[in-house]
Structure formats: structure tokens, C-alpha cells
Amino acid sequence: MNTRIFLQSILTIIALGLGGNERCIAEEKNEVARPNIILCMTDDQGWGDTGYNGHPLVKTPNLDAMAAAGIRFDHFYAAGPVCSPTRASVMTGRHPNRMNVIRYGTPMRPQETTIAEALKQSGYVTGHFGKWHLGSIQKGSPVNPGNSGFDEWLSSPNYFDMDPILCRKGVAVQYQGESSAITVDAALEFIREQSKADQPFLAVVWFAAPHTPLEASDEDLEPYISEGEWAGYFAELTAFDRAFGKLRDELKVMGIKDNTILWYNSDNGGMHWKSTGGRAKKGSIYEGGLRVPALLEWPKRFPKPQVVTAPCNTSDIYPTLLEITGTKVEGQFPLDGINLMPILQGTQVSRTKPMGFWQMNGKGKGVSSKKLMAGLLKAQKNGKEVTDVSHLDLDAAEVKTPIPENDISGHAAWLDWPWKLHRITNNNGDVKFELYNLVEDSYEKADQSKRYPERVQSMKVQLEGWQKSVVQSYNGQDYLPKN
Q1: By C-alpha distance, which of 164, 52, 158, 147 is closest to 91?
Q2: What is the pLDDT of residue 385?
Q3: What is the CATH number of domain 411-477?
Q4: Interatomic CA distance for residues 67 and 51, integer angstroms
Q5: Which of 87, 137, 152, 116 is nearest to 20 (CA)?
Q6: Where are the domains of the chain?
Q7: Rounded CA separation 64/87 (Å)
Q8: Contacts (Cβ under 8 Å, ≥6 apart) of 139
Q9: How confident is the model at residue 369, as a pLDDT?
Q10: What's residue 9's pLDDT?
Q11: What is the pTM of this model?
């Protein structure tokens, strides 16, 4: 999509958006190398917000069944502690700061190659269903799902709840019902159609549960009514689990379950401090803000259940799927994720590449789906397309304010299992380091930095080198022509 950096008008954007990404080429594949792929993600579900991870209240029987039958990741990390950054990492295999998705609501740059664009060049039909939050979903946006590689899409600019207005390929549509059920029904409509064809499909199914405002049915609220303000949170998780179970069951009914990859995870740590699975919660790069539940099923390749204890990351999804499908991306930008197949196959026990996390200084961008979609629906009923041009993100391709390469302020962390080093810059510009052994201290309570100064120095060099690489990407150097 890098040609769209030069877009000057909405009409030009729409015209150019019809084209594919010419930087992707694919190899020949046999059946098992061309599985159907479904990527599911919840919104604000903590590591401990599942039955299989021991939550004392929340009911998730379908996730529990998948955990017992498939691959369970015990140390799976979101690339960012809030929604938009993690979604960008799934799309690209890159740390979200590289493409300016430093906080919630900031749009992904259209120069990036998404997993949808890459797999389309390998013969996949692609669909997105549910929460987007990587830019405007309106027709003229250079970063809507359609201009990011998706053939079909029913999407929302951010979270949504009961009776939502969603955007089907740029057209606002009023729906009635619970958000997770609507999301799954739309995805299944696409999946059933593709299951009859001779092409594999990619379906990205991003749920809005259990994000606020926590509107749930009376039926789902009833078991949790004594939990007060958290009743809606748990009720939405139950509703999600029911919809997810329907999706999983239908794959078997359609006869495509064996050669379909079903990959589930949350987008960041949870909101309920008791079940985040670590120190702090959403918004933090301590464990509670990053460690998330994750499961994978692919019966044809992995018929027996297993538990993966090696640390894995949402940035790993992109390179893993490229490896599985034999897809090659010409001029691939630097990746932060790794191919997980050696770990999944048991030929590699530990992770060979450390993980970097970094909250740059900056602010998020509020995106109200309810307000935006109501405005779009009203405008389209009156024969108009755009209600507010500022929400089209026409400047998403631009590097607006480059930062100095040595500006690595904020809160960053380097995870070289089992050690995790934090680099924290305070408001005065002073830097402090914290070091934790996550095997011995999963809640990051006992700082080991003074006990192991040599380890701190070694990891500091690696972390700061990685941060400088991220700054170069943030400043647009990845997009410059190569000599």
C-alpha cells in the first residue's frame, strides 16, 4: 500500500485503494501448507479471566474445551498494553511504535504490509469482522480494512456493545443484538461461503468484549449480579465465550476444522486487578498489562494437546503464518516477531529472540464508535458519505514529527526469559532500571538490578539498541527507497 503515501484526495485514495500490494509474492503450496486461518481477539480480557486459568467466577466452557484439546500458551504477551498497538502488531509482525501506533486510537500507516495483503498474494480470500481501531473505517480512509487488504469486512472504528451500528465495506448498517454474537454470525457467513470454494481464507474476528460500557443481557448478568460494577465485565466474557463456541463448533459442522488454524488471544492485560496475571493491569508494561490468554488449534498439524511455556508475542503471529503458508514478502520491513513453528513442533524449547516493549511518551486519540457510526448512518441516509473529514486519517502516511534517534524516553522493557529489564524515565528525564526474574517472581515485586549489575548492563545495551531501531522506523526510514 506504499503508493498511497502520495494520496491527495478522497477520490484518489479510493481509486488507488482498489489495488493490491505488489511487494508480496508466494510459493507453491500443498493442502496442509494452505490452511484456513481464523484470528480471534478479545478486548481487555486479562490472563486470568478464563476458567482454564483458574478464575473462580467467570464461565468460559468453550475456551476451556479448546485449552484441553489444543495448544495453550502460558506466557503469551500483547505487543502493547492497550488495544490499537497490539492490533497493529498482529497485522504486521512489527512493534507498533514503528508505524506510529504508540497509543490507542492512532492510525496505522498505510505503507505497512498487513497479513491480509501478504496472504492475498498467496491465494487467500480475506475478511475482517468486529473491532478495527487502526484508523477510520469510512470509505475514503487509506487505512480502513478494505485498503488494508481485506476483501470483505464488517467493522467498527472501536469497541461496540448491544445493538451496534457497524460498517459493511464503508456502508453503515444498524444491527440488533449482542456484540459477540453479531461478530461471529458475520464471520460465519463469510466462512461458509469460502468453505465451498477452492481458496483458503483468512478471517480476522476481533471481539469488542469485555470492554466498557459493559452492556450485557439480563441472562448473562444473572450469575454475576453480586459482583456489582464487575458484573457486566464477567457477563460480556460469558457472552463472548458462547459466541466463540458457536464459531468453533461450526468449523466441525462445515468439515473444515482439521485444516483450519484457530488462534485466540486478548489484546492487552485485563481490568480486574485480581485476574490480570501479573503486576498492574491494562495500560502498563508490567506483566499485568501485557500477559494475555492465548490458545491455538490446528488438528491436522497438532492433533494432541500441548502447553507452550516459552514466551510468545502477538508480533509472532504474522511471521508464523507467513512461514506456514510459504508466503514471501518482497522488501519486508524489520520484524520484531519470530516464526513460532519450531517451538510449536517441539524442535526448539526456548525463544531465541528477546522481546522489546515500549510506551513512548504521547497521548491516545479518543474514538467513539457510537457517535461516529450514528453520524455516518445519518449522513448516508441523506446521500452523503463523510460527516467529519478529520476522522478519515488522510495524513496517516505522513511522518509528522520525527524524533531524535537518542530520544528513548518513556517506559520500556526487555524480556530475555526469564529476565525482564525495565527502563523508566521520569518527568525530570532521570532514568532508573528494574530487573526481575519472572520464573521466581512473576508479579515483579523483588527488583534484582543491584544484585546483578552486569546483567543489567548487558540487557540495557540490547534494549537501547532496539529502541533506536524503533525510532528509525518511527521516523520513516523503513519506507525510503533502498539503494
Answers
A1: 147
A2: 75
A3: 3.30.1120
A4: 10
A5: 116
A6: 35-353, 411-477
A7: 24
A8: 10, 14, 170, 385
A9: 87
A10: 35
A11: 0.92
